[in-house]
Amino acid sequence: MNAAFSYQTMVPSIKECNCMSITRNNRKNSIARAAIAIPKTRKKHSISQTELISVHGTASTDLFVHEIVERQTRKAETTALHLCQNPSFHPVFFEEAYGRCRDLCAEYAKTFYLGTQLMTEERQKAIWAIYVWCRRTDELVDGPNAAHLSSTLDRWEERLDDIFNGRPYDMLDAALTDTLVKFPLDIKPFKDMIEGMRMDTRKNRYANFEELYMYCYCVAGTVGLMSVPVMGIAPESLLSDHRIYNAALCLGIGNQLTNILRDVGEDASRGRVYLPQDELAEFGLSDKDVFSRKVTDGWREFMKEQITRARFYFDQAEEGATQLHEASRWPVWSALMLYRMILDSIESNGYDNLTKRAYVGRAKKLLALPVAFGRSLQTKPSIVLS
């Protein structure tokens, strides 16, 4: 791709940001192994930890992270393997580029931004650059180019290739290009996120959790895989890199499942149902019940099981959160705890996520931050899995 496309026509710009212009693999086997049944809470006491993980499909995450872990590990060991070549921009240019990323993160992800303040300056900048790229990618779905989303995503993927080859298109791209020089990031999770956006052009229903899991991996699990090389793994960690990457992926999956449960009513107003159709049917429900916005006993029982699943993924994420570099743990713990609180809010609303949007008030968020900081001081995982 060349610079023939202006930034304004490529993607919707983030508000108040004045930017400078400057073969998918077959996944059938992965999808088949990602099958996850609804966790039956009444049977929890009789299910071993290994069986519980199998039921929820955590073992299937190995299929998604193995290649990325191998590539990023090799890059970390041999700097010559970095794919990205840094363009010859003046240091002041990069400072301004990272400054714009910082401002956007502070505006749109206030709590997470606060958590990054304990990180080293280099890690801060990298996380801000990754956040901004992910946000811009997500905005493609609802932006002014959404009517032509397929072709827009194709151009966005070409633009991503340019970023990884040291040819940034604008100032925000340049911040990510510089980050790629400093940290061993692989292009695969970035491309997989774009694939998740493509899913929204093809699907507005998910037959089962196998399909929904793949969507959650693409649009959110990938963020965890992007972040681990920047967050850093604690030198004293006894867990394998692979296990920590799996935990990061679980946090992304849990976050996206929580987003889906929070936004059921909003998505329904757009004709979308991001819920497993077969599991709805098990509770005598269908799309008609979602669109009717009636909270029945069947809906409440269905939601209880969906919340149990999301909490399982957060539980799995904890072991990785304790093993990150000490300066990087607080924002991760903050996100983990605040998303759990959204699930609590859905319960407090009587499982009415059809007419109400669960949220966590500012006071509760502020109270959670010191608790998250305390958890970030932990150095041992609550569960260790081989």
Strands, total number:
0
Shape: globular
Uncertain runs with pLDDT below 50, 5 residues or more?
Answer: 1-59, 79-83, 382-386
The termini sit apart by 44 Å
Multimeric state of these chains? single chain
Mean pLDDT: 81
Specify the number of helices: 18
N-to-C order of helices and strands? HHHHHHHHHHHHHHHHHH
Largest sheet: none
Structural class: mainly alpha
What is the radius of gyration computed over CA atoms, rounded to a whole number of angstroms? 21 Å
Q: Which bin fits the share of residues in helices?
A: 55-70%
**What percentage of the residues does DSSP assign to strands (E)?**
under 5%
Write the layout of secondary structure elements.
Layout: H1 7-10, H2 28-33, H3 49-56, H4 62-77, H5 91-108, H6 110-115, H7 121-142, H8 149-164, H9 171-182, H10 188-202, H11 209-231, H12 241-262, H13 264-268, H14 277-282, H15 287-292, H16 297-321, H17 329-348, H18 362-376
List keywords for this structure.
386 residues; mainly alpha; 18 helices; globular; disordered N terminus; disordered C terminus
Please provide a written account of the structure:
With 386 residues, the chain is mostly helical. The chain is 63% helix and 0% strand. It is built from 18 helices and no strands. The chain starts with 6 loop residues before the first helix and ends in a 10-residue tail after the last helix. Its EC number is 2.5.1.32. This is 15-cis-phytoene synthase. It catalyses: 2 (2E,6E,10E)-geranylgeranyl diphosphate = 15-cis-phytoene + 2 diphosphate.
